[in-house]
Amino acid sequence: MKITIVAGARPNFMKIAPITRAIKAAQEAGKRISYRLVYTGRQDDTSLDASLFSDLDMKQPDGYLGVIGHDHSEVAAAIMLAFEKELNNYPAQVVLVVDDLTATMSCSIVAKKRGLKVAHLIAGTRSFDMNMPREVNRTIVDAISDYLFTAGMVANRNLNQEGMIPEYIHYVGNILIDTVRYNRHRLLQPVWFSSMGLEKRSYLLLTLNRHDLLTKKKVLNALMQTLVEKAEGMPIIAPLHPYVQNAIKALEISAPNLHILPPQSYLHFGYLINHAKGIITDSGNIAEEATFLDVPCITLNSYAEHPETWRVGTNELVNEDPVAFASMLETMLYGEWKHTTLPDRWDGRTAERIVQTLIYEESKSAPKSQEMDNLQK
Can you give the residue ranges of the UDP-N-acetylglucosamine 2-epimerase domain (predicted)? Predict the structure, then answer.
């Protein structure tokens, strides 16, 4: 079985790395399975820092589609054309896509039209807001996928309510936790940590990525002013991408305890998450990591991709409300924060379950001669 795994952005690799290790383990056990990793962006993409793949203990992509841009339609069209050529040159039986990017949707459509099996990792996630481009992407991908790999029972319920074929739905657990578990003891303290006078549990970690929030200057300003005021001098460590840095700096907030830094490597950033007093983010991935690591987390959004993070985890949703944010910050800094009850199947074996499912299901549809060969093997 040949699998093409598609990554559309840097965060996808955190979820793909465990699968590549699980495939390698299956190969070593004598299974006939291989993969080709394709990145839809360019090889010189600055978001793919030099240490990323060594930090994740995985190889670099085998191929790059070289597509960049911001217009959804143009990017989708370019990826579809490039992915057609990729599959012409490197045929596959299964195309595995991750999350809910334009790249995820585009490659899924190409694969399905070619009669290939589509496997969607982290299927069933819903915000129920079809004005969000990612909601459109994930809904389309789920509708055409042959393997719907879900992280929780809420995702299963969403897919069942939408009438998906039950045999296509596989509750495998949270793939991101595989990566966190694997790397927890490999995390590295940044070289600047001590020189800035930081101590464990004595700083707040701020991450922002959501373009929609960054364009709301008044809302963003109110949230940032609230954060600085409630922190009362506690260091706020903010590793931010350049476009986020520009949005924050444009607010002209004067706060000596706000330290805006460039993006950190995976192992350095993981260290910052693990030892923070609390985390303020708009990222679902970081809320999941915080839940696993039992670190208090406030999410500046109205929903979480994985509701487990706020139902049984350390996450709290405040949307973009400065009043609710202020209240949660006070609790985070001076009160008692809830602790994690680890969700089901956050056990580090999600990738193993995915690969086992693919091997088993694909063997059932293999030609008889191949089945006999497999049995003899």
Answer: 29-358
3-state secondary structure 112-171: HHCCCEEEEECCCCCCCCCCCHHHHHHHHHHHHCCEEEECCHHHHHHHHHCCCCHHHEEE
**pLDDT tens, residue order, the chain (377 aa):** 999 999 999 999 999 999 999 999 999 999 999 999 999 999 999 889 889 999 999 999 999 999 998 889 999 999 999 999 999 999 999 999 999 999 999 999 999 999 999 999 999 999 999 999 999 999 999 999 999 999 999 999 999 999 999 999 999 999 999 999 999 999 999 999 999 999 999 999 999 999 899 999 999 999 999 999 999 999 999 999 999 999 999 999 989 999 999 999 999 999 999 999 999 999 999 999 999 999 999 999 998 989 999 999 999 999 999 999 999 999 999 999 999 999 999 999 999 999 999 999 988 876 654 544 554 44
Give this prediction's pTM. Answer: 0.92
Strand 236-239 versus strand 63-64 pairing type: unpaired
CB 262 within 8 A of CB 49: no
d(CA 357, CA 89) in angstroms, rounded, equals: 27
b/e per residue, 111-139, with b = 16+ CB within 10 A? bbeeebbbbbbbbbbbbeeeeeebbbbbb
Distance in angstroms (rounded) separating the CA atoms of residues 232 and 203: 11
**206 Cα distance to chain centroid:** 17
* Helices within the chain (DSSP H only): 10-28, 52-55, 72-89, 102-113, 133-144, 153-161, 175-183, 192-195, 211-214, 217-231, 242-249, 266-274, 284-293, 308-311, 322-334, 350-364, 368-376
Which positions ≥6 away from 174 have C-beta within 8 Å? Answer: 151, 152, 288, 306, 308, 343, 345, 346, 350
Fill in the DSSP letter of residue 32. Answer: -
**Dihedral sign from CA coordinates of 209, 215, 217, 222:** negative
How many CA atoms within 13 Å lie on the side-chain side of 210? 24
Tokens of 49: 């820092």
Which is nearest to 245 in space by CA: 265, 220, 227?
220
- How many whole angstroms separate alpha carbon 274 and alpha carbon 244? 23
